[in-house]
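It would be a great kindness if you could assist me with a short task in structural biology. Thank you for your consideration; the sequence and its tokens are set out here.
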Amino acid sequence: MTIPNLPTWLPSEPRKRRWLALALLVTFVSLAAAAVAVPALLLHRYYDENIASLSRRVSTQTAFNAQRPRIMEKLAVLKLREVKKMYLKGTSSALALAELQETVRTTIEANGGRVLSAVQGIAAKEEGAFRPVTANFSLAVNNVNFRRVLYALETREPYLFIDTVGVNPQVPSAFRSVPGVVEPDMIVSLEIRGYALKVASDAAPAVPPPKEKGGST
């Protein structure tokens, strides 16, 4: 039996047409499954990545919360720390300068040096709540003790800052370092800066209001 008006692309044999129909059916079913499965897989992947990201955040926050008591304890220690000991105690520039000179002098002499002169440096511009003071020092000290002096100045309280260093060696050209022989002193110039805290009395005095013109009647 023959079926009239078949498309030219269809095979003439019934068996081949059945196989073609089966292949087309499988193709359509596969496309339909892919249309459903691919978006589902992409959505699943999106949510998996978000869940993993949130899990990492929760883990990080949990670790931070576990350290919070220790951090708060350290913060409390810092708050209790005496901050003022880092600054010169002088309440005026003159007092702060005198304290700076005395502090530097005792530090130098305690570490094997001799202060030859100490002069006030150029007045520095005030920095907010801080009043910087500077002094220039000339000292005689040998090489070994000079390193001790520098270390003592930079690690003591109140904090001191060495701005400039000048060294004039007094060692003869024929001098040779020999165990038991003290090396000659060098002449060293230091410019040292310290900071004092300004107090409430340092504020500008209040200016009284101008008097009204004319007298009362």
Q: What stands out?
A: The radius of gyration is 43 Å. Residues 203-209 have pLDDT under 50 and may be disordered. The beta strands are 114-120, 130-141, 160-168, 186-197.
